[in-house]
């Protein structure tokens, strides 16, 4: 399928070395006295290799990607030291257009790279600009859309796509151009399990293709998702320097401690087994398994005693997190990286205390339908659910099942085509939009959709200013909210933050006015382990205080650990299941931790 469309267009040096960084450092802007975004970067990749680029939010991963495809130095101002070479040729010796054809960069936010109105036009856009034959363009669009599983949405408007469909569309538009190096910034972040598996399978085929030797760089926090197709890993630290660099299998087996300390999401099987080794003398020096099947094979040989130890750790770490036991009697101060202060809690809790019932439903939908105007697409279909005050719900379902649409409806950003939504037993259409908005905190899937101001400080204070509670926000509290974002000045333009930092800015901008309901659409995308831990801890404590929380996420692993109930939607926008978390995951045994638990229990029963 992947014939070389542009043979002869690029004069590539006859070398297997596709990419090399040579003592590379970069400072953004015009002040060379500030700290560099990345510094002293040295590594190389051969043609056809797959690299995972990991590290905490703001560590410089995006900066390196910009240097690979010419955005640095041709589009971003700054000071650069060292060199970056593509097939032995310095980026300074390419023109920007030539380098963009050679190196494709699929950004984290798919909407940033969409330029047309339909999926078909988006895939054809690049080839049309090269003035290729119409028949060839149509053939390539057909081949790539089938390869990526999006042929059924070719005529769909871009604005009608789910986040996962947008991601697949953008990736397809790059693959159609036959890039020699392809950079993917969290490519599976918006994808459901089926789409994720399909994409990773296609990337693996791409890697193994003899006629299409693409060098892949995958920026990813979740190592477990991509480790089966990667050859190497580079982990950056908070200072923008290389913390770990080597073969992925060797790093996973031999470098657990430095990997864990680097704030990436270590595969849960390695994290679990490493803790198991600490309490089992028999396996203290054993190698860490690098995939789920290896772990299943290893535990087959365990004694009953070791199986029980492993089972206990599995429950504590992955299914019924013991880490939250310290909060069981915690009543007063809520901490988010030392964020929350008691004096502010008192001020916030004085606001309209009577708006929320102490018991019963806080949200209810009755026979709700939603059809997108001018399209006929029915995103939500006869939805009737009750959401109780203090619920902590994981909202799941395949791409295009209506998860984001449902959140928009609950936030009163969309009106149902038919049916009714109630807040505290009152039709939300009878509640003023302004009054209802005070009780809703919405974290959008795209963090830029809720950024309205030109400075971080003004963005955080946007809600309190509009709701008339600005005088309640202390300067000390504001500083703590800014610290959640990172080491940034309050005057910085929010649009210059990384994706992960923008997400944390979103969180600060809703926590500041203390809404009763918090709706989060894929909040874990672009977040490192430390931020996820802080976010989940904060949500847990806010839920404990009575806040109602709904998280839409494809990260079932995190939902298994932290939510109370699971609401699953079907592809047609109907409810498939709405049940207690434990019941749900008992019925749907398709997650690694639950599969491992079942395997352990089976072996224990055989031991007698």
Task: Describe the structure in your own words.
The model is unreliable at 1-11 and 329-358 (pLDDT under 50). The radius of gyration is 25 Å and the shape is globular. The chain is built from 24 helices and 20 strands. A 6-stranded mixed β-sheet has the order 6-7-8-3-9-10, sandwiched between helices. A 6-stranded mixed β-sheet has the order 16-17-18-13-19-20, with helices on both faces. Strands 2-1-4-5 form a 4-stranded antiparallel β-sheet, covered by helices on one side. By secondary structure, the protein is α/β, with parallel strands linked by helices.
Give a quick precis of the structure.
Helix content is 38%, strand content 20%. By secondary structure, it is of the alpha/beta class.
What percent of the residues sit in helical stretches (DSSP H or I)? 25-40%
SS field, number of helical segments: 24
Q: How many domains, in number, for the residues? A: 3
Note the main sheet. Answer: 6 strands, mixed
Question: What's the layout of helices and strands?
Answer:
Blueprint lengths: L16 E12 L9 E9 L3 E5 L6 H9 L1 H4 L3 E9 L2 E2 L5 H7 E4 L12 H11 L4 H14 L15 H13 L5 E5 L7 H16 L6 E5 L3 H4 L5 E5 L5 E6 H7 L1 H6 L6 H12 L12 H8 L4 H16 L22 H8 L11 E11 L6 E11 L3 E5 L6 H8 L7 E6 L2 E2 L5 H5 L2 E4 L12 H5 L1 H6 L7 H11 L13 H13 L5 E5 L7 H16 L3 E5 L3 H7 L2 E5 L5 E6 H7 L4 H16 L1
Helix pairs in contact: 4-5, 4-6, 11-13, 13-24, 19-20
Keywords:
608 residues, alpha/beta, Rossmann fold, six-stranded mixed β-sheet, 20 strands, globular, disordered N terminus
């Amino acid at each position: 399928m992947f014939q070389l469309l542009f043979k002869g267009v690029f004069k590539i040096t006859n070398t297997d070395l596709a990419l090399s960084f040579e003592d590379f450092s970069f400072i953004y802007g015009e002040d060379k006295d500030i700290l560099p975004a990345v510094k002293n970067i040295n590594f190389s990749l051969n043609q056809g290799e797959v690299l995972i680029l990991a590290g905490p939010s703001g560590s410089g991963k995006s900066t390196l990607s910009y240097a690979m495809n010419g955005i640095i130095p041709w589009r971003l101002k700054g000071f650069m030291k060292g060199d970056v070479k593509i097939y032995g040729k310095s980026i300074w010796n390419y023109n920007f257009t030539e380098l963009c054809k050679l190196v494709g960069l699929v950004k984290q936010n798919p909407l940033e790279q969409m330029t047309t109105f339909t999926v078909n036009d988006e895939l054809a856009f690049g080839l049309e600009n090269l003035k290729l034959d119409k028949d060839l363009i149509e053939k390539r669009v057909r081949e790539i859309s089938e390869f990526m599983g999006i042929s059924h949405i070719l005529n769909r408007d871009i604005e009608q796509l789910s986040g996962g469909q947008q991601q697949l569309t953008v990736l397809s538009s790059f693959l159609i151009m036959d890039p020699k190096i392809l950079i993917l910034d969290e490519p599976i972040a918006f994808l459901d399990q089926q789409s994720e598996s399909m994409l990773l399978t296609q990337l693996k085929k791409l890697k193994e293709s003899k006629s299409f030797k693409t060098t892949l760089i995958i920026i990813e926090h979740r190592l477990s998702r991509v480790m089966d197709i990667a050859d190497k890993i580079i982990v950056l630290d908070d200072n923008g320097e290389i913390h770990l660099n080597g073969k992925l299998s060797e790093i996973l087996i031999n470098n657990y401690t430095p990997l864990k300390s680097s704030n990436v999401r270590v595969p849960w099987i390695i994290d679990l087994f490493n803790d198991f080794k600490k309490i089992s003398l028999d396996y203290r020096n054993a190698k860490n398994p690098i995939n789920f099947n290896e772990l299943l094979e290893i535990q087959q040989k365990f004694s009953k005693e070791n199986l029980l130890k492993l089972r206990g750790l599995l429950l504590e770490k992955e299914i019924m997190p013991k880490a939250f036991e310290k909060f069981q009697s915690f009543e007063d101060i809520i901490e988010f990286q030392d964020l929350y202060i008691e004096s502010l809690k008192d001020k916030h809790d004085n606001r309209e205390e009577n708006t929320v019932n102490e018991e019963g439903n806080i949200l209810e939908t009755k026979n709700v339908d939603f059809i997108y105007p001018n399209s006929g697409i029915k995103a939500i279909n006869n939805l009737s659910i009750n959401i109780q005050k203090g619920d902590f719900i994981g909202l799941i379902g395949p791409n295009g099942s209506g998860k984001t649409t449902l959140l928009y409806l609950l936030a009163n950003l969309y009106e149902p085509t038919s049916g009714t939504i109630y807040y505290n037993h009152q039709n939300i259409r009878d509640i003023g939009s302004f009054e209802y908005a005070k009780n809703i905190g919405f974290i959008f899937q795209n963090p830029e959709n809720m950024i309205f101001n030109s400075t971080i400080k003004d963005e955080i204070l946007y809600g309190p200013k509009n709701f008339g509670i600005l005088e309640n926000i202390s300067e000390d509290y504001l500083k703590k909210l800014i610290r959640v974002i990172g080491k940034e000045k309050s005057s910085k333009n929010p649009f210059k933050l990384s994706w992960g930092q923008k997400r944390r800015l979103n969180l600060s901008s809703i926590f500041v006015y203390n809404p009763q309901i918090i709706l989060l659409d894929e909040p874990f995308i672009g977040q490192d382990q430390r931020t996820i831990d802080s976010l989940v801890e904060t949500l847990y404590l806010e839920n404990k205080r009575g806040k109602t929380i709904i998280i839409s996420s494809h990260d079932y692993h995190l939902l298994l650990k932290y939510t109370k109930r699971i609401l699953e939607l079907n592809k047609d926008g109907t409810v498939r299941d709405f049940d207690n978390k434990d019941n749900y995951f008992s019925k749907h045994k398709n997650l690694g931790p639950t599969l491992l638990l079942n395997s352990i229990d089976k072996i224990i029963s055989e031991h007698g």
